[in-house]
Amino acid sequence: MKQYDVKCPICGTMNKGIYLGETHGWMECEHCGIDTMNIEYAKKHAKRVPLLRLKQHDPYPAPAAV
Hints:
By secondary structure, the protein is an alpha+beta fold. The protein has one helix spanning 39-45; strands at 4-7, 14-18, 26-28, 35-37. The protein has a domain at 4-45.
């Protein structure tokens, strides 16, 4: 696994040797202890999900008049 050196966005401490792949981009700062997600890592590894708009797709069409 690849190790990353990540700067904490809260306190500014450089956290070295973090395995972001193991935690899907999340890390706990060694100095302040706050959990944050690394935005650069998340942008590279995010998967796009298609958006379904209910107005375009009606799963329950109106019944035909008899």
